[in-house]
Design a protein that fits this description.
There is one protein chain. By secondary structure, the chain is of the alpha/beta class. 38% of the residues lie in helices and 23% in strands. The chain has seven helices and eleven strands. An eight-stranded mixed sheet has the order 7-8-9-10-6-2-1-11. Strands 4-3-5 form a three-stranded mixed sheet. It is globular and about 45 Å long.
Amino acid sequence: MRVLRGRAADRDADREVVARLLEQVAEDGEPAVRAWRPHRQLAFGRRDSRADGYEAATEAADSHDFPPVERSVGGRAVAYTGNTVAFAKVLPLEDMRVGMDERYERVTRAVQRALWHLGVPASRGEPEASFCPGDYSLQRDGKLVGVAQRVRKNAALVSGVVVACDREEIADVLDPVYTALGMPFDPESVGSVADAGGNGDPDEVARTVEELLVGDAETEVVSVPDVADAGTAD
């Protein structure tokens, strides 16, 4: 299994790493895992970009010093402070029509076990009016994890976010953003690993999530900056 560590120099280059990884897995059939701290940003989903209040929502993000971006996977808006942890597991597919629920379950269980290792007995589900609502969320004194999936020919990307810390900062920016989008949101629904009494150090969270997503597989560790530089050279 290929394991990517680190992040690219800027937001756009870093997002391209995951897109390139999805293509690579589709081509060579080797699964991959990445857990990292994305650059500071507020990532909007496709449904957000079609909302009447989208422009106001991006202005609200900018005013809180969260550069707005649109992402190709996932549902509603998610804030990354620079300490928020993202994860991705990319798997080869033989038939893109089957296995979606099983992939969701395996990845969600792995991340749940990672939270247990970090000292947080997280459970399935989410509070009402949570950010990026979905069926495969984890909570403990607020929503901690959201999970999404993107499927293409020959590969599937199961990805998500873990709120390691910075709970109040995330709630403060998402409140006006969701108001502009006309979506229900309760700032108190946001949790964090740190506020739930666990080890909220972002690097520890990333490494623990990586370990549980990899499992017993043999790994080949690759530096993300090297991957990004190679892509630029191409």
